[in-house]
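Colleagues,

For the teaching module next term, I've prepared a clean inverse folding example: a structure given as C-alpha cells, and then the sequence designed for it. I'd like students to try predicting residues themselves before seeing the answer, so please don't circulate the second half yet.
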C-alpha cells in the first residue's frame, strides 16, 4: 500500500480492494497535483507499458526480461516488467524504496526461488538462454553470473582463496591457473597493488571498501556474462564508494553490469543506461543522461528532481 508520490506527507494510503489490487486513497489535504493518467492506472492495478527510449533498440543485449511478474504470497511486487540489458555497459536501476529493484535483480540469478512464498510468471534470457525454463540447471546458471551485495561478504579465508573460490568449487586444481586468475581478477578489481604482498592473509582483516572490491574480484574471477550489483556502496564511506565507482566504470566494455542503487548521483556518474522503477513497474528506461536531464515522463522527472521517493 502506498501514498501517492505527489501527495503531501499527511496524505495516507491505501486500502486493498481485493483481487491483488491496491486502490490509493488519499486522506487529509488534497495532493499538490492530480495524479497523472499513468499513476491513476497504476493505482487501479493496471499494467502500463514502459517508456523505453529508442537507443536501447540499437544495443546488443546480454539479458532480456520478458513480461516478468512476481508475487510474495498474495502481494504482487513486479508487474509485467520488460527490460533489455545492454552488453558491455553499466545499467542502473533506480526508484523509491520498495519499488522492486532488488526483487528484479534477485530474479536474474533465481535467488527468489529460495523463498517458498514467491511465485513468478514470465521469463528472462541470458545470452538467449531461458533462465526460468523447467529444465534449467540453476547451479550452472548461477556460474554464468556474479553477484555483489550491499554488505561486503568475504569468506573467512585468505584473500587468495576468496578470489579463486568460484574456480575451486568448479574443480580447478592447477595452481598456475589459480594464480593467474587471482592476479587478473585482483587487477581487474583495482586491488592487486594493495594486497599482492598479503594474499595469504585473512580477507576479514581488510577495510570495508577493500572487502567490497574483493567481492567484485571474486565475482569476476569466473568471467561472468553479467555482473549483478545490489547497492554495492551502501555500506561504504565516500572514499571507498569512489573507488568502487571507479572500478565499476573500468569494468564496462569487458563486463555487462546491472546495478541497483538508491543514489541518483551514483547512477548518473557510472551508468550508460538507467531504468526508473515505481511500484513494481518499469516506468522509463533510456540513456542515463536523458533520464536525468530530459526524461519523457513527468513521473521520472518528479523522481529524479527529488520531488518524491
Ligand atoms: N522476502 C520478502 N517477502 C515479502 N515481501 C517482500 C520480500 N522482499 C521484498 N518484499 C516486498 O516486495 C516489494 C519490493 O521490494 P524490493 O526490496 O525489491 O524493493 P527495492 O526497490 O529494492 O527497495 P529498497 O530500495 O528499499 O531496497 C516491497 O513491497 C517489499 O516489501
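(Answer key — instructors only)
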Amino acid at each position: 500500500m502506498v501514498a501517492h508520490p505527489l501527495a503531501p506527507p499527511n496524505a495516507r494510503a491505501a486500502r486493498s480492494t481485493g483481487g491483488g489490487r491496491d486502490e490509493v486513497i488519499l486522506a487529509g489535504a488534497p495532493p499538490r497535483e492530480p495524479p497523472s493518467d499513468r499513476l491513476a492506472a497504476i493505482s487501479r492495478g493496471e499494467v502500463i507499458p514502459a517508456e523505453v527510449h529508442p537507443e536501447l533498440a540499437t544495443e546488443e543485449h546480454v539479458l532480456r526480461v520478458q513480461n516478468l511478474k512476481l508475487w510474495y504470497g498474495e502481494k504482487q511486487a513486479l508487474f509485467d516488467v520488460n527490460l533489455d540489458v545492454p552488453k558491455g555497459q553499466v545499467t542502473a536501476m533506480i526508484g523509491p524504496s520498495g519499488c522492486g529493484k532488488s526483487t528484479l535483480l534477485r530474479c536474474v540469478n533465481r535467488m527468489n526461488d529460495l523463498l517458498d512464498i514467491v511465485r513468478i510468471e514470465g521469463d528472462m534470457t541470458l545470452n538467449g538462454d531461458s533462465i526460468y525454463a523447467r529444465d534449467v540447471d540453476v547451479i550452472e546458471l548461477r556460474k554464468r553470473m556474479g553477484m555483489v551485495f550491499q554488505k561486503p561478504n568475504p569468506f573467512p579465508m585468505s584473500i587468495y582463496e576468496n578470489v579463486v573460490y568460484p574456480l575451486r568449487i568448479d574443480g580447478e586444481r592447477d595452481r598456475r591457473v589459480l594464480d593467474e586468475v587471482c592476479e587478473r581478477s585482483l587487477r581487474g578489481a583495482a586491488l592487486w597493488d594493495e594486497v599482492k604482498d598479503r594474499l595469504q592473509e585473512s580477507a576479514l582483516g581488510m577495510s570495508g571498501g577493500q572487502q567490497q572490491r574483493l567481492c567484485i574480484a571474486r565475482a569476476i574471477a569466473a568471467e561472468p556474462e553479467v555482473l549483478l550489483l545490489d547497492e554495492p556502496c551502501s555500506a561504504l564511506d565516500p572514499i571507498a564508494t569512489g573507488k568502487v565507482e571507479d572500478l565499476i566504470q573500468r569494468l564496462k566494455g569487458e563486463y555487462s553490469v546491472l546495478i541497483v542503487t538508491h543514489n541518483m548521483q551514483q547512477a548518473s556518474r557510472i551508468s550508460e543506461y538507467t531504468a526508473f522503477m515505481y511500484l513494481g513497474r518499469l516506468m522509463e528506461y533510456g540513456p542515463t543522461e536523458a533520464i536525468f536531464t530530459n526524461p519523457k515522463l513527468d513521473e521520472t522527472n518528479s523522481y529524479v528532481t527529488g520531488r518524491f521517493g
